[in-house]
Specification:
Helix content is 23%, strand content 12%. The protein is α+β, with helices and mostly antiparallel strands. The termini are far apart. Keywords: Lipoprotein, Signal.
Length: 466
């Protein structure tokens, strides 16, 4: 018997060591992978460029001196993030918060964890919304592996979870009509989500959007890399209210009638393809995390490699992309003029000493308006200014790296905005002009777009992939 066992052990050892490699060094292979350009994005091939103001702008040289820098390849949204796209984030967060509260109330009501009510989509009781057991999440929306569920992984995993790491139940539809509420516990939860009756008017009862908070964690990689201690102290937690501040249309302007924009701009179907505004730098960062969660959920469901994270562009990446491959250009279309040869304005800004309508737009326009630059990016100048993932320091060009430069000091609340907007004069539309706003501030003229790292080195720096 010992002899047989020894032979089996020897065969197992040889199989594990050889394993079809014939004893050769072949490396440990990961999942099959190919570069995939995300929907709505364009490829910006990496390369070097002269960043900063030209020599004739003496004042601008004080905070944007010329410097040759190199950036790696990346994907970038062709347009600014629109109201419709940002509403997807708001609705997902809203539903997550409500399902969390319903699941907690189901436990209080005595259903216990993992209870499955018999009502299905008819909502027989609040127990239909009870937690579905422990979540086996894997980094940023990995889902519950092996769970018998019709949910997609990003639905199985919610950023809103209880201390016992319970999964939310996304299989049952939420009920919005009061006559369909299944029981008193459901009524109690939903009543909490709306503003009090005394704050309602015109027969409408509005939801309390301050409760729509997105919670996420991230690691301060730079801090952790420079430390020899426990990395756990570099894991940061954030909780951000996701609903845009629609009051910016009133607060940004004194003695101006902008109530229609306040009332309609974010939610009305007429503005779905317009850039979202009233979003702070912190909210833009939360959106990037959620977009990564959303995309990775699909990838995990299909058994595919996870995507690189979505993020805000660095200041250098933004300027490089805005130039569209044109060296020392004043604007994304070249320059130095803001009109084409037919006398038409090339962007949405404040022309002719304040004649806002001269460029065919009073406020913002659809995100895919005017002509794109040579990287197929729309409105890199004008329409709305854009948050970037860099802190503003007038001297930063003097000391940052010449390779993938970025300065983002967590202690510096002044964050760079680029590109100018519908309310700015042409100077701020120049691709080299810098401005800033505080990270927790929202404006009617600031939006954002996202980028994702290009995950390969086989890209010809001068020829973007087809």
């Amino acid at each position: 018997m010992k002899k047989v066992f020894s032979i089996v052990a020897l065969v197992s050892f040889l199989a594990s060591c050889g394993g079809g490699t014939q004893g050769q060094l072949v490396g440990v292979k990961g999942k099959k992978w190919h570069s995939e350009k995300p929907y709505g994005m364009t490829t910006v091939p990496g390369g070097s460029f002269i960043m900063g103001k030209s020599d004739d702008d003496i004042a601008g040289l004080n905070n944007a001196p010329t410097k040759t820098v190199t950036v790696r390849s990346f994907y970038m949204d062709e347009t600014e993030i629109t109201n419709a796209e940002y509403r997807q984030f708001v609705v997902w967060t809203r539903d997550s918060v409500i399902r969390q509260r319903l699941a907690e109330e189901a436990e209080i009501a005595g259903g216990g964890s993992g209870a499955q009510g018999g009502g299905g989509n008819n909502g027989a009781s609040i127990q239909d919304y009870a937690f579905k057991g422990s979540a086996n999440n894997n980094n940023n929306g990995g889902g519950a592996n092996g769970a018998a569920s019709n949910e997609t992984p990003y639905q199985q995993y919610s950023k809103h979870y209880d201390p016992n790491n319970q999964r939310l139940n996304w299989e049952v539809d939420l009920l919005w009509k009061t006559e369909e509420y299944p029981d008193e516990s459901y009524v109690y939860v939903m009543d909490e989500m709306y503003l009090p009756m005394e704050q309602s008017y015109n027969g409408q009862r509005l939801m309390d959007v301050t409760q729509f908070k997105y919670s996420y964690k991230y690691m301060d990689i730079e801090g952790a890399a420079r430390s020899n201690g426990d990395r756990s102290k570099f894991i940061k937690s954030e909780e951000v209210e996701v609903y845009p501040d629609t009051t910016v249309w009133v607060k940004d302007f004194n003695y101006s009638y902008n109530e229609p924009m306040h009332n309609d701009y974010f939610w009305h179907a007429a503005y779905e393809d317009y850039p979202v505004v009233g979003v702070s730098w912190e909210q833009a960062k939360a959106f990037c995390d959620w977009r990564t969660l959303l995309h990775n959920g699909y990838k995990v469901e299909k058994g595919q490699q996870r995507v690189r994270q979505y993020r805000l562009p660095s200041e250098a990446e933004w300027e490089y992309a805005a130039r569209g491959g044109l060296e020392s250009a004043t604007y994304p279309w070249g320059g130095p003029y803001s009109k084409n040869d037919r006398g038409c304005f090339l962007a949405n800004f404040k022309p002719l000493r304040g004649d806002y309508a001269a460029d065919q737009a009073l406020y913002t326009v659809e995100a895919e308006s005017y002509e794109p630059n040579d990287y197929n990016l729309y409105n890199m100048s004008g329409n709305v200014a854009e948050w970037v993932n860099s802190s503003y320091d007038a001297a930063s060009y003097e000391y940052y790296s010449s390779m993938n430069p970025n300065v983002n000091d967590p202690e510096n609340e002044r964050k760079v905005v680029r590109g100018g907007s519908w309310k700015d004069v042409a100077y701020f539309l120049q691709v080299s002009s810098r401005d800033y706003e505080y990270a927790d501030s929202s404006r009617s003229y600031i939006g954002f777009r996202t980028v994702q790292d290009y995950s390969s080195n086989d890209l010809d720096l001068n020829q973007p992939p087809q």
